Structures are given as structure tokens and as C-alpha cells.
Amino acid sequence: MNAIDAWVWWLVGAAALGIPLVVTAMPEFGMLAVGAVAAAVAAGLGFDAVLQVLVFVLVSVALIAVVRPIAARHSRQRPQLATGVDALRGKQAVVLERVDSAGGRVKLAGEIWSARALDTGRAYEVGQEVDVVDIEGATAIVI
């Protein structure tokens, strides 16, 4: 009966750790799987079982200690892609009908929007470019 080399067992362990990674979407299992692959490399190079386990533990712990906090920080950040009315804030619009504190019309992102001036004492004339600072319902607030 042929004995299976240790590096094969480490690769089987890495594959086994990949299953809960896919099922649970917990990245820690992936980091443990990478540690098992590193231990398989150590076994393939002829290192003894103690050193293989040490490589597995060190690589796995290092990945969890370094990658996990970075991943957690990124998951808490707001997405960079703004959509909906959030994407319209900061855009420029062209005045189609005089805009003042009472109202008016602008062309914003290819569509005609009702608009009003943020500054109650200010008015914008037809053809002027204005900046959208907020959207309230279906009205663009401009300066």
C-alpha cells in the first residue's frame, strides 16, 4: 500500500476549507486555505511535520491579522458610486426658465427639472449655468 505524501493531504485540507468559504462567505476560511497551501509547499520541499504545521499556523494567523482589518475597514466605507438623486448633487444645469426663490426650470442630466435658487435674493437667467446643491423631491436647489 502506497502512503500519500503530506503535501497532498495539505491540498485536500485547503480544498476542504474552500467549501465553507463558498457556503458561508466567511473570508477567514480562505485565509486558512492559503495557510494549508503554504504548508503543502513546505511539505513538498521536504520539511518535517512540525515545520509544516508551523507554516500553516503562521501564514493563516498573519493573513487573518493583516487582511481581516483591511476588509472590515473597506466594508464600512460608503460606496464611491453615487446613484439616483445623490448622483445629481454637484452637477451643473442650464437654466431654461428664470430661476429664483419661487421656482423655475433647468436642464439637468438631459432632463428638465423644476428648480429654485438656494439664495432667496438671487435669480438666474435663461442660458446661465448653475450648480445643483441639493434635490428636494422633484426640485433641484441651485446656486
Automatic annotation (TrEMBL):
<keyword id="KW-0472">Membrane</keyword>
<feature type="domain" description="NfeD-like C-terminal">
    <location>
        <begin position="85"/>
        <end position="142"/>
    </location>
</feature>
<dbReference type="Pfam" id="PF01957">
    <property type="entry name" value="NfeD"/>
</dbReference>
<dbReference type="InterPro" id="IPR002810">
    <property type="entry name" value="NfeD-like_C"/>
</dbReference>
<protein>
    <submittedName>
        <fullName>NfeD family protein</fullName>
    </submittedName>
</protein>
<keyword id="KW-0812">Transmembrane</keyword>
<dbReference type="InterPro" id="IPR012340">
    <property type="entry name" value="NA-bd_OB-fold"/>
</dbReference>
<dbReference type="InterPro" id="IPR052165">
    <property type="entry name" value="Membrane_assoc_protease"/>
</dbReference>
<feature type="transmembrane region" description="Helical">
    <location>
        <begin position="6"/>
        <end position="23"/>
    </location>
</feature>
<keyword id="KW-1133">Transmembrane helix</keyword>
<feature type="transmembrane region" description="Helical">
    <location>
        <begin position="53"/>
        <end position="71"/>
    </location>
</feature>
